[in-house]
Specification:
Length: about 260
């Protein structure tokens, strides 16, 4: 499958701002960048730094004036859809070193507070079957409500409120997975069926010695997803992190099948 991605960002800047930008689709074994272009206007190209777990790249920029950015890419996805329930759980002592950190609680994913719940609700299941049941449980019990949460909302708050957006759904699934001793991380992605169109968030879980994409909103299947970056939670992989004052004027994201 091939995707065409188009992003437009327009932000007002009232003073000097350091901006960390991560909007480029990552070059990975299961997704190839066929073409891409980035135009950041007067801000020039910035300078790249490594992204979390070496998935994708981030760009530092020093802004003095208003920021306008456009990004275009065509991405080829080569990822088969598999039965999530068929994947086995990896015992903790057999995990690769870079997966171990994703067993731990993080800022938005307080997994240590959910162990009693996951054992009571999903205790008869393990591995991919447990993750599939958690995904389905979230879809059945949570409402997708834009504006229902904010940048500081944690998985615990979403669990209580039973509503949120893709970011919140991903945080809940990640939290439940880690409480089940299954490594899980947050993935910022592009996908063609997201409504309303925007940057999207899903979970990745480590099963059968590989990372598996899971979308608890049900809007995107793994073979349609292009990863941007990954991290412990949304704080690690925001598409823009600003150190200074910026004001949104316009932002559009378009992802279409070729």
């Amino acid at each position: 499958m091939e995707l065409d991605i188009s992003v437009r960002l327009d932000y007002g800047v009232s003073g000097p701002v350091d901006l960390l930008l991560q909007i480029e689709a990552a070059e990975l074994d299961d997704q190839r960048i066929l073409s891409s272009s980035m135009n950041t206007g007067w801000a020039d190209d910035g300078w790249p730094i490594a992204a979390e777990s070496n998935v994708g790249r981030r760009m530092w920029m020093r802004l003095q004036n208003d920021f306008e950015c456009s990004y275009e890419a065509r991405v080829s996805i080569d990822r088969k859809t598999s039965d999530l329930a068929s994947f086995a759980q990896v015992t903790p002592h057999n995990l690769p070193g870079d997966a171990v950190r994703y067993l731990m609680p993080s800022r938005y994913c307080p997994s240590d507070t959910f162990q009693t719940f996951v054992n009571a609700e999903f205790g008869t299941l393990s591995g991919g079957a447990r993750i599939a049941a958690m995904r389905d449980w979230i879809q059945d019990h949570f409402a997708y409500v834009p504006g229902a949460s904010g940048p500081g909302t944690t998985a615990l708050e979403t669990f209580v409120q039973r509503q949120g957006v893709c970011r919140d759904f991903a945080h809940v699934l990640i939290t439940l997975a880690r409480a089940s001793t299954i490594p899980a991380r947050f993935a910022s992605v592009y996908a063609p069926d997201v409504d309303p169109p925007d940057f999207h968030a899903v979970a990745e879980v480590y099963l059968d010695d590989a990372w598996r994409l899971v979308d608890p909103t049900g809007m995107a299947s793994p073979e349609t997803i292009a990863r941007i970056g990954v991290g412990s939670d949304a704080a690690d992989v925001a598409f823009m992190t600003t150190f200074g004052s910026m004001m949104l004027r316009q932002q559009t994201v378009s992802v279409t099948r070729v």
